[in-house]
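Lab notes, practical 5.
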Amino acid sequence: MNRLLKIFLLTLLVIFTLSFVLSRILRVTPLSWGHDEVNMSFWSNEAINGYDPVAYFTVGKAVPGSDSFSVEWNEAKWLFSSDENRSLFESAPDQYAPQYGGYCGYAVAKGFTANTDPEVFEILNGKLYLFVGENEKEEWMKNWRENIRKCEDNWY
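Output from the prediction step:
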């Protein structure tokens, strides 16, 4: 019996540890557990998977950034595709940084953080929103005004 209890406890420990590690890698956690202000790579402090936040506004699409054009802001390293984009961001980071630190808007509306696919985004009222996938974006967009309210309530 004592041996079975040890095996059971060890199994629970392994399950808990794997769940925690996977949630950190995927960056899916309840907001109530606390969260970083910016969605950063698990392996570095690069914001929003290394994509240029300004390019969403200037060219209307996701553009990978470069280490050659980077800036530290809000405890994260932001990458840009050009010196001009870096300068625009430095002059008004709140204007270009994605909402909710670059975490998925759909997840934040539900009370979680989740990593995003940089290719899946929406700009509403001059604000950038990122999403984990097209299905989540589509669902969130059905009632985006209410979802923004939920996100605001959950985020702060």
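Observations recorded by the TA: DSSP finds seven helices and six strands in the chain. The radius of gyration is 18 Å.
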